[in-house]
Amino acid sequence: MTTRRLPGAGAELNRDEPFTFCWNGAPVAGFSGDTVVSALLAGGHDVISRSMKYHRPRGVLTADYWDPNCMVQIGSEPNVRGAHRLAAPAMDVRAQNVWPSLRHDVKAANALVGRFLTAGFYYKTFMQPRALWPAYEHVLATFAPGGSVDLDAEPPRCDIRFAHPDVLVAGGGPAGMAAALAASRAGADVLLVDHGHRLGGHLRWGSGDDRARAAQLAAAVRAAGVEVLTDATVLGRYDGSWVGINQRTAPGVWERLVKARAKCLVVAPGLIERPYVFAGNDHVGVMLSGAVRRLLNMYGVVPGERAVVFSANPDGAAAACDLRSAGVEVTVVDASTGVRLERVEGSRRRAQAAVLSDGRRLDADLVVTAIGWTAPTTLTNMAGDRPVYDEASARFFPDRLPPDVLVAGGLAGDGSVDELVAHAHATGAMAARRGLTVRAQLRRATPRADPTVTSVPPDADEPVPLGRDPHPALFMAGSHGIVDYSEDVSSKDIVDAAAEGFDSVELVKRFTTSTMGPSQGKLETVNTVAVLAQELGTTIGRLGTTVWRPPYAPVSLGALAGRNDIPRRVSALQDWHDKHGAVPLHAGNWLRPDHYGDPAAEAANVRNAVGVIDVTPLGKLDLCGPDVADLLELVYVNRWRKLAVGAVRYGVMCTEDGIVMDDGVTARLADQRYLMTTTSSGAAAVWEWLERWLQQERPQWDVRVTPVTPAYTSINVAGPRSRELVAGLVDDIDVSPDGFPYMQVRTGTVAGVGDCVLLRIGFTGELSYELHVPAGFGLHVWEALLATGAALGIRPFGVEAQRILRLEKGHFIVGQDTDGLTRAASAGLGGLVKLDKADMVGRPELGWAAARTDLPMLVSILTDDPSVVPVEAAQIVEPGTNAIRGRITSSRMSPTLGRSVCLGQVDAALAHPGCALTIRLPGGAQVGARVHDQPAFVDPEGVRLRG
């Protein structure tokens, strides 16, 4: 062939925009709209990769996102799907999992010992002796597939978005577009997500009329106001139609994770063409009919010169027709005649001949199969459905779906494009009715809802089923071939697994690793089931499929992590901190002063004189309404109904399973107004927690929750001289011990600024006042405190000094000294929990925990050697062994005591005062310690903070 490009062909290409990129260091020509692989094939590059285990040459199989043979490295990005990724100018593309080159891969020597690399090889070979495991691990790592990660490369920018559509349609083929269009016209907010770069599904690689129909539907969808995400994949469906979407080409970012709460989900992913299992089916030049039509009609690439098409359906006939139109010599083997494709022969570089079951040998450099489809029921499986096999159609179908999940297109049945569109239109209208009904129900159930919200008539209709066309059950020839191209698993491996007693598809999956590769079972699952069923003498329907779990398609860790450049929150005092030498601390989303040069000296100054710290990140929620006390009684473990106006109380929140969630103080400012403070990291979670209980569980309560964290600049004034300092700046508040006692709140004027809130509390263990000042006047009040306190020995202190002080006092931090398993009793809060309350969150679990005597306990710990400060998370072990009995949660050198102090969680048997402990340090050294006789190391009687 003089060229592999058809003149003027390729609906996806813009031939006015040619460019070149590099393939293994050599230039390759392409056009705008080309994928990496379509450009490579057009340039005569047939071998794209090497197989995982045997390193056999691999070429195009499906020419789409699911192609297991087209993984490449692009720049510093490994494991890129080359048959899907669009080529770009100057792109550096390389083969991966090869050495030293794609053409001459030394690892191909694995094929010489292939008969020893059977299913379960790793499990059987690398078990003994255990002492050699490090060597085994090194060898296995050397042969691990995939590309290379450049740890020095600039990480790509990702982000996260939240969406709340009435209807979410997964799949942008003709059925998906019709469903989205109908739902939008019915008044629903619709989000349409498609795997491809453009809408259209299988119409994109069909005839000219097909492509025109796709363009017409796509234009109507956009005109109807449907939001469309292309090059995006619905990753999973969770409870309540919570849907995750990986958007790969979002504007301004590399990838975006969309978290959508869909009121109704329409699953319309189309069908995935299934490979045929036969000897030599992984030779370069063996393709599916869909791959051939994509290459010809979308990219104008002729994939071979002489083709054999093994066809059992109209798609095979269409592929043969397209090949003939491109000038390819074609021989069609019609499956209805009973003749089967038995094997393909070829060289290391390309297929050369197809051998049929009747003994004929047909010369061919291109072997095309069209033997059936797999219905990707993954998302419906995630909705709780188990698919049912239809013998007549030779594929699985969804069975019993929840009301908020509907199906359209090939997943629902068969028919012409007009029939599929008509069915999908009815499905989309039904989805809109169901979604709008849920929307109305949610709005009516919300106390702050617009009372004029109108209801939508409930949908009592059941989806009208589509017909199902008969199709021959063709899965495997009389010879063994590859079942899972990603994992190099053959049909013989599955037969061997069955012989070893693995008679469940779930067990065979794990033993052979079939379906566990990047294709996620889309191409392999049904063939795996078919081979196993044949070997066991049962049917595909009885054997069933594996359970598909999220994600539907692999997703990068970057997309899951979200933004790596999260905007930092700062207080109104941040410029002052920067000018005065504060060392910054990134605490969650906040930038805070860690210290100003000497945290130990800062802590000592608080103990001996007075200090000020910026505590603006403390969560602050303004609670108003007649039912606030009821809300506090519900979410806190202690009592709140009798909290007097002007009083402050400490409270702990637990989750429904009794785990400590957050703590803080809440002050009653007026009869129906309270100010709640939370931990800095828990502010948003607590706000959402309160709203959840108000909106979903107690909508009848009249409570308004307003987050006011950034509205106030919060300053803690601490130390034995703090009363003198505050008294010099207020003239409308009596700060005497009797006028403003411990655990009280006052409102008034500070340094001439009104509407300030003052709390008399003491996280540092010293006489303290927490000042909440309108943020616009925060710097003024801060500087006034420093100026007035100069004669009192004032100095600012940072987060590190605060942590030293609180640890000396024995105060724990939620999330540091507690974890996701810590119950209130374990944190020493048993006396705070009031189990005789009428109701509170987590009450049953809290009651069970209170009755237990085996829970780990949080205790204060002193090391035998006072100079040793164990690292946080150091393990507390059984003496003489490495049996873990606890861990250090907080540790510091105390400037007040001149020795180390710690908090730690230990087994209940070790929690009594004076109990000897052994702490294992990094490097293996051990140090003795003992449980302190009380929580506080400094001022256990509380004289200083109550003074």
- Structural class determined from secondary elements: alpha+beta
Q: Treating each run of at least 4 consecutive H or I residues as one helix, how many helices?
A: 23
Task: Quote the average pLDDT.
Answer: 93
Residue share in β-strands: 25-35%
| Terminal-residue CA separation | 95 Å
Q: What does the largest sheet look like?
A: 6 strands, mixed
Shape: elongated
What's the arrangement of strands in the largest beta sheet? Answer: 39-40-41-38-32-42
Segments where pLDDT lies below 50 for 5+ residues?
none
Instruction: Tell me the Rg in angstroms.
Output: 34 Å
SS elements, strand count:
48
Level of helix content?
Answer: 10-25%
Helices and strands in order, then pairings?
Layout (H helix, E strand, L loop, with lengths): L13 E10 L2 E7 L3 H7 L6 E2 L6 E2 L12 E4 L2 E5 L10 E4 L25 H5 L7 H10 L15 E6 L3 E4 L3 H12 L4 E4 L14 H16 L3 E3 L2 E7 L3 E6 L7 E7 L2 E4 L4 E2 L12 E3 H10 L7 E6 L2 H12 L3 E6 L6 E6 L4 E6 L4 E3 L2 E5 L2 E2 L3 H5 L5 E3 L4 E3 L7 E3 L9 H29 L36 E3 L4 E2 H9 L5 H8 L12 H12 L3 H4 L13 H5 L12 H6 L3 E5 L2 E6 L3 H10 L1 E5 L4 E6 L3 H8 L12 E7 L5 E11 L2 E6 L4 H15 L6 E4 L4 E7 L3 H6 L17 E6 L2 E7 L8 E7 L3 H12 L4 E3 L2 H11 L33 H9 L5 E7 L11 E3 L6 E11 L4 E8 L9 E5 L5 E6 L11 H4 L1
Parallel strand pairs: 1-7, 8-14, 9-10, 9-15, 10-11, 15-27, 17-23, 18-19, 18-23, 32-42
Antiparallel strand pairs: 1-2, 3-4, 5-6, 5-7, 12-13, 13-14, 16-24, 20-21, 21-22, 25-26, 28-29, 30-31, 32-38, 33-36, 33-37, 34-35, 35-36, 38-41, 39-40, 40-41, 43-46, 43-48, 44-45, 44-47, 45-46, 47-48
Helix pairs in contact: 4-5, 4-9, 6-7, 10-12, 16-21
